[in-house]
Amino acid sequence: MLSLLATSTTFDANDPETTVAIGHLFASLAIALGALVLLYYTSIYVRDVLAADVGGAQWYLSIGLGAAVVYAGASIGDVFLESAGIPLFGDGAILFCILFLTLAIRAMYHAERTREERSQLLPAWADVAVIAIFVVAWWGTFLLESAWTRPVVAVGWVLASAWAIHYGVQTVRVHEGTTLAALTRHLLPAIVCLVAIVVVDLVTSYLSGYAALADATWIVGTTLVGAFLFTTAVAIRQQGGELERLYDWTTWRDQSLE
User: Fold this and answer.
1) Keyword annotations for this protein (predicted)?
2) pTM of the full predicted structure?
3) Is the C or the N end of the chain the one with fewer CB within 10 Å?
């Protein structure tokens, strides 16, 4: 993405580049707002309503949403500032966002519904190893600016999204009818949209004449990600609202056994 407003000293609504820059700005604000709202409602729901032990999933989700906010901040900075490091840092942030949202879905899948514990495909230390690899990839992308860093990170995007889809389907199948299934259904499309955005941006960066396609995909895709994050927060709030209505004195009459 280009720093479109950084080179413009005056605001011109008729300038196509300025229009695209404003679209980038509002799309970035949408994903930041959606992530913050989801983080707020998730913390309240886990603290006050949810009975299942999903502490690990909550931490993963919080870190993933924090990375989404960092990504949105990097995108906003890229609009106003001319710095080659900001887009690279944003690539790493989106890598972390996809990874930790995937780990959150995986942790929800392994949340125990019965006394029978589901077998894990990978041992616990594998999570730490995967996170360490992604940390190295992030800082490698940020510090080692070369032609091969973005394709390597793109491989991580695709693998993490495939991992998320696998565990998303399994989570919905195992926890059908629960909050965990509803959360996964709304969260998984956000991950898919993120991957679609970065893959299109990567492919078009090696082609000439497709800058408009990359900008359009980024604006629409990022807005969709923000919308999916917000609808996930709405779904969580509705789950809590359903429980609150069980004790709603305006809809339930006093009952007596006499």
Assistant:
1) Membrane, Transmembrane, Transmembrane helix
2) 0.77
3) C
